[in-house]
Amino acid sequence: MGCPGGRYHDKLHQRRPRGSDDSNCLINATYQLNEDAVLEYAKAHVGSYFETPMTIRGEINGSWGWTTTQMREFVGGIQRIAMEENGGHPMIYGTDAVHGNALLLDTVFFGQQINGAASFNTELVYEQGRITARDTLAAGIPWVFGPVLDIAHNPLWPRTYETFGEDPHLAAVMGDATIRGMQSNNQTAACMKHWIGYSWNPTGHDKDGVTISDFDLLNTFGPSFKAGIDAGVLTGMQNYISVNGVPTVESTRLLKTLLRNDFEFDGMMVTDYGEIDALEDFHRVARTTAEATKFTLERTSIDMSMVGVGTTFTNGTYALIGEELTILDRLKDSVRRIIKLKLQLGLYDNPLPGEENLALVGNDNDVAAALNLARESAVLLQNDDNVLPIKKDALVFLTGHSADNVGYQCGGWTIQVQGVSGNDMFSHGSSVKQGIEEIVGNDSFSYFNGLNVNGSYSDNDLNTAKKLASEAEYTVVVIGEEPYEEKTGDIDDLTLPVGQIQYVKELASIGTKVIVVLFEGRPRLLGDLPEHVYAVINGFLPCELGGKAIAEIIYGDVNPSGRLPITYPKHSGNVMIPYRHRVSTQCATGDYCVPQWTFGHGLSYTNFTYSDMSISTTNVTSSSDSVNVSVTVTNSGSVAGKETVMLFLTQPYRSISVPEVKQLKKFSKISLDAGASQTVTFELTAADWSVYYPQIGQGLKLVAEDADYVVAIKPETDCD
User: Fold this and answer.
1) Residue 141 burial class via C-beta count within 10 angstroms: exposed 0-12, middle 13-18, buried 19 and up
2) In this structure, what DSSP letter does residue 544 have?
3) For the chain, first and last CA: distance in Å?
């Protein structure tokens, strides 16, 4: 499609209203749409906007943000002006709706992506994607910046909770489910991010550059992004970092050769926030913003620049056209992709979609879906002497800084970009305290919190807590992290604040049976805390329904079924050793390094017995051959439960690269009544025992060596 007057006005620019320049801000002093500012951007042919402008402002006049209806009116005002000024071409609006449309007030908030992974339930993750897209569309927003397809690598990294964990196959399956759910309405574009290698972080500090081999780039990150593209994802976003010394935003190798040629992605590609400008002021490879624009346009296939204010990208593009007419063909490719996206979403026919969804925002079925995800993503890590579940008439003392704080259950990208603290701003929220009250009332439990999130507490508060704990048979301590996002979550030590650990140990010292609940976005080191308590539950960041889910698990109304989607490290020197580490990664004793809890670990209130494992053939001679692996699982306990059956594969010797000890290749979550059995069958194909050949620029090539392979069931099985 051509552009009026020959001006490439659909070579778009993205802006997030930061409030740093009132003349450019899309809202005025009374927090209404600033139509004059929108008109100026429309005249500059800015064709895309994102985020609610209230997500970085905190509480204003008693409110923490906007409702879906308010946001829809805001988006509609921008769309009206944009189309009037640009010959009927619609703008496209996007948002970071990464766990529900959680930057608005009245939608249902789901757990973070790490919770979806911990559930090992693709149906729940699909449903989260579907509801998220429907609710964003209700706000007039057809573009969702998710899912995150990065692979967790360094648990210090503050965006760990935004991933589907450390396993490429798990991330691929969950990414596929999310994208299919989001795009099931045919009016929403999902966005795979952050292309590529972003999380291969050596320090844990966000935005640090990475050094990575082609083998690891393709075999760690390739599966999830390939799954996203195969699922039909319409857009993608690059990352903040440099890979092997080259900023991604100017990398021909990553944003042309690998993305467009090898992965054959033809969707629209946007930068992450401010990345073109960052070539000058962060990466320091460009001397001016004009040069930065030139590098990105000439060297990559980026279609859109995401910035906060101003039109430097637009201006730089016009200047480049004046200098180099040969750039026009390159720009036409981007214009084609952007307009194609708008046509795919039907924006020319209905520039403000989703009105019919307004009445569905926050409905009871959505609440039930979010609650089910919270239930199935909680991981019972430790349960000494089967202390859980506890009886409803038992005396319980509840304490901890996260025991009555829904915001701490949610993490970042919740109402505000950096997250919030408190309960009142949540439409459907339930803290652990509120969840327990709903189950047992106030007669059999007491509550007092003397602990701050930084680990500090006074002697008086500790003494009060110890007195209450001494009067209770059980003490539930809810601890973990405060909300953060991106760089604000950088830490220098993965250990939980020492004061949090000491507070728990002080309570345990008086004889009460301590149950620890963790709300955290990454696996914080616990030291010797597990040795002093009876039970540990990791809720990750289940968000507003998490308190209810945890209470149900504590009292046995729900049987826990979550599994760790990430290794939980034990020692600070071993935090970057995933379960799928190479066979040569060993500790001083010559043995594999022992974590606190392994990938896939998760206890239940019942027992599952595995038997009759069979394999259809042990000799494969063709790449078209397949292998069926079956195993019978029996619930040998006394209560119903859900079990995730996992199949791992390893190649003990591999010439192309040192092999991994094992890798997840298949999983299935099943539900069994007490005494019931089910046979689970997995089909393995050549893709499962192959690896991507470490070449970029020659197409994706899966290779399988003539070798022995070992098949194993259950995460605790030693394959080596």
Assistant:
1) buried
2) G
3) 57
Beta strand extents in 520-593 (DSSP E only):
535-540
**683 beta partners:** 628
Domains and CATH numbers, the chain: 11-360 (3.20.20.300), 378-574 (3.40.50.1700), 608-713 (2.60.40.10)
Q: Which residues of 547-566 are buried (b: 16+ CB within 10 A; e: fewer)?
A: bbbbbbbbbbebbbbbbbbb
pLDDT in tens, 275-287: 999 999 999 999 9
CA distances in angstroms from 264 to 192, 228, 257, 267, 269, listed in the order given? 14, 12, 9, 9, 13
Q: What is the distance between the alpha carbons of residues 285 and 248, in angstroms, rounded to a whole number?
A: 12
Q: How many CB atoms lie within 10 A of CB 699?
A: 11
Q: What is the mean pLDDT of residues 349-358?
A: 98
Nearest CA among 493, 508, 626, 545 for reference residue 369: 545
143-144, strands of its sheet edge to edge = 48-50, 92-95, 143-144
Identity of the residue numbered 689 = W
Q: State the CB neighbour count (10 A cutoff) for residue 617.
A: 10
* Chain center to CA of 497: 24
Quick: pLDDT tens for 15-67: 343 333 343 588 888 889 999 999 999 999 999 999 888 888 888 888 999 99
Active site residues: 272
Strand (E) or helix (H) holding 513: strand 513-519
Query: Distance (Å, rounded) from C-alpha 689 to C-alpha 714?
Result: 18
* pLDDT tens per residue, range 405-452: 999 999 999 999 999 999 999 999 999 999 999 999 988 999 999 999
Determine the distance from the C-alpha atom of residue 255 to the mean position of all C-alpha atoms in its chain, rounded to a whole number: 23
CA angle at 597 for the pair 596 and 600, rounded to the nearest 5°: 165
Residue 37 sits at φ, ψ, to 5 deg, of -65, -40
Q: Enter the DSSP assignment of 381.
A: E
Residue, of 259 and 327, whose pLDDT is higher: 259
3-state SS of the chain: helix, strand, coil percent to 5? 35, 20, 50
Residue 43, CA distances (Å) to 35, 51, 84, 312 in order: 12, 21, 10, 14
Question: What pLDDT was estimated at residue 195?
Answer: 98
pLDDT at 717: 87
Give the model confidence (pLDDT) of 101-148 as tens digits. Answer: 999 999 999 999 999 999 999 999 999 999 999 999 999 999 999 999
Cis? peptide before 196, omega within 30° of 0? yes
**Residue 343 CA to chain centroid, in angstroms?**
28
